[in-house]
Amino acid sequence: MARIAGVNIPTHKRVEIALTYIHGIGPTTATKLTEQLGIPSERRVQDLTDAEVVQIREAIDNDLTVEGDLRRETAMNIKRLMDLACYRGLRHRKGLPVRGQRTHTNARTRKGKAKPIAGKKK
């Protein structure tokens, strides 16, 4: 099992698919990375040589922000917005949708489970 950026990537999957298990690497980035390193798209992780795994690891470390660093950076950006008390920061603070979605109905993912209001009919 190959370990890249602190994540054990699955061995029986193709390299492009397996790289998407790393937070911060999506399908497009994974494809660009394999093309840049000259790894065929049909190659499986179990078929990679140690040198190729090291190549992938170094390319990710040098060029991309992934896993813990990316999560920390995102959390700091949200915290900054909350500290500024701008509109987006207030929405984050209240746990409401940030990007202008309607909240009269829907928005259950952000708002949580519906709480019944006593005495409200209609």
Automatic annotation (TrEMBL):
Pfam assignment, any one: Ribosomal_S13
Region annotated Disordered, chain positions: 95-122
Keyword Transport: no
Protein function: Located at the top of the head of the 30S subunit, it contacts several helices of the 16S rRNA. In the 70S ribosome it contacts the 23S rRNA (bridge B1a) and protein L5 of the 50S subunit (bridge B1b), connecting the 2 subunits; these bridges are implicated in subunit movement. Contacts the tRNAs in the A and P-sites.
Family: Belongs to the universal ribosomal protein uS13 family.
InterPro entries: Rbsml_uS13_C, Ribosomal_uS13, Ribosomal_uS13-like_H2TH, Ribosomal_uS13_bac-type, Ribosomal_uS13_CS
Lineage: superkingdom: Bacteria
UniProtKB keywords: Ribonucleoprotein, Ribosomal protein, RNA-binding, rRNA-binding, tRNA-binding
Oligomer and partners: Part of the 30S ribosomal subunit. Forms a loose heterodimer with protein S19. Forms two bridges to the 50S subunit in the 70S ribosome.
Source organism of this protein record: Parasphingopyxis lamellibrachiae
Protein name: Small ribosomal subunit protein uS13
UniProt GO MF annotations: rRNA binding; structural constituent of ribosome; tRNA binding
GO biological process terms, semicolon-separated: translation
GO cellular component, one term: cytosol
